[in-house]
Design a protein that fits this description.
It contains four helices and four strands, in the order E-H-E-H-E-H-E-H. By secondary structure, the protein is α/β, with parallel strands linked by helices. Helix 2 crosses helix 4. The radius of gyration is 14 Å and the shape is globular.
């Protein structure tokens, strides 16, 4: 089972989804990439994932072009911009999904409010991807 998660910057939402999916079942090959990747993973995303028991500090943002010729069971976009600009894969994609989440890195307000936005989005990603895993993916694994 090969799953690619796409976002624009590949620094926050896609990295959290990547971390959660891998934590649910290590039999899956999970990658994440961006249509315009940043230089590093968002440190607040690393922090809130660490608090959830998942280490994504070693992840590196990747350009989606790296994966275009591969075969994927799922390609999942997690932001509207990536969904709209998703390139055409010359490899085979069995199922393409779009599950959008707000970008906590764009939150403005007090430090407490911004931190809570990271927690909220992290928890929404965990719930959505766990449901996808339980309802659809798990039964396809060997």
């Amino acid at each position: 089972m090969k799953i690619l998660i796409l976002c624009t910057g590949n620094s926050c939402r896609s990295q959290m989804a990547h971390g959660f999916l891998k934590s649910f079942d290590n039999r899956m090959e999970v990658a994440s990439a961006g249509t315009n990747p940043t230089l590093q993973v968002n440190q607040k995303a690393v922090e809130v994932m660490s608090e959830a028991g998942i280490d994504i500090s070693h992840h590196k943002p990747q350009m989606v072009d790296k994966y275009l010729n591969e075969v994927w069971d799922y390609v999942i976009t997690v932001c509207d911009h990536a969904n709209e600009t998703c390139p055409t894969f010359s490899g085979k994609v069995k199922k393409r999904l779009h599950i959008a989440f707000e970008d906590p890195s764009q939150a403005t307000g007090t430090p407490e409010f911004i931190q809570n936005e990271y927690y909220r989005v992290r928890d929404e990603i965990k719930e959505a991807f766990f449901n996808l895993y339980m309802e659809e993916i798990k039964s396809q694994l060997p």
